[in-house]
Amino acid sequence: MSAVIDAIGHRPPQGGRSRSRRAGVLPGFGLTLGYAVFYLGILVLIPLAALPLKSAELGWSEFWSVVTAPRVVASYKLTFGASLLAALVNLVFGLAVAWVLVRYRFPGKKLVDSLVDLPFALPTAVAGIALTALYAGNGWLGEPLEKWFGIKVAYTPLGIVIALIFIGLPFVVRTVQPVLEDIEREIEEAAVSLGAQRWQVFARVLLPTIAPALLTGFTLAFARAVGEYGSVVFIAGNMPMVSEITPLLIISKLEQHDYAGAAAIATVMLVFSFILLLLINLLQWRQARRGAGRQA
Who is most buried in 160, 179, 190, 260, counting CB within 10 A? Predict the structure, then answer.
């Protein structure tokens, strides 16, 4: 503290009232809040508000017929179902990857750690082409899977799930990894010394601590998967009622200059995504509140 005082050349003002006015190095609360609201409004709120406004041009009956068409409903089920399944898979295996990176030392650990971020840096279209070539009927993995096990991956919903797992894994790993690093090993050792088994240590000591981070990673992976297009469109095959995702339908509407129809489908996606994310965030809030109650 004395070093900081010497650096700035004066002591901070005394009294709780003065300290509350100087809450940080940024400008006052009003100016900072105004800038934040303006920034979010320009980049997020206004574009999102344009969707229902544009779709309102259709009228309620035409809007309902567009968003409830059998082909569109099938794309909803595929998009949200594949996104949910991929996020659940990443929830399990992302935790396993983060655990290995934090708790073990092995040759090539830094390389593996850097590979986790590859889906972030790799263009989604490149990822889609690579996955399609790999899992196609004549691909390195697609051919033996189809020949020996009868499993066809490319141009099926299974291929969509694999693509969404690929792009969503880093969200879970990078969210859980710092939390695992902050957990003190003495807590686990104390539980073991009291007679707890390994599964009890994980379920009663570690899991409550990392649960909020797991839910956050799951939410991020799910949100990314719902709106993913580039890595999915190549491997999906885009067969109506089978492997056609909702973002592709929106692009098709835009190419046909049906902007109101595209906005209508996008509005439904926005509402569903907001409701699901709200439920997940509420669950995360309750989990964090329980964890705080246990610590208290």
Answer: 160
Copy the structure tokens of residue 47: 């574009």
Q: What is the CA radius of gyration of the chain?
A: 24
Owner of token pair 């909020």:
212
Asked if residues 104 and 180 have their Cβ atoms less than 8 Å apart, the reply is no
CA atoms within 13 A on the CB side of 9: 0
∠ CA 242-247-137 to the nearest 5 degrees?
45
Q: Tell whether pTM > 0.70.
A: yes
134: tokens are: 């790999």
Distances (CA, A) of 225 to 80, 186, 229: 8, 38, 9
111's tokens:
């390389």
How much is the pLDDT for 294? Answer: 60
In tens, the pLDDT along 229-270 reads 988 999 998 888 888 999 989 998 999 999 999 999 999 998
Residues 60-85: pLDDT tens digits? Answer: 999 999 999 999 999 999 999 999 99
Asked whether 208 and 159 are in contact (CB, 8 A), the reply is no
DSSP state of 57: G
d(CA 93, CA 112): 14
- For the record, the structure tokens of 233 come out as 């469109």
Query: pLDDT category, 110, cuts 50, 70, 90?
Result: very high
Q: What angle do CA 44, 48, 53 make, to 5 degrees?
A: 145
Q: Token digits for 158?
A: 């299974």
In whole angstroms, what is the distance from residue 54 CA to residue 253 CA? 13
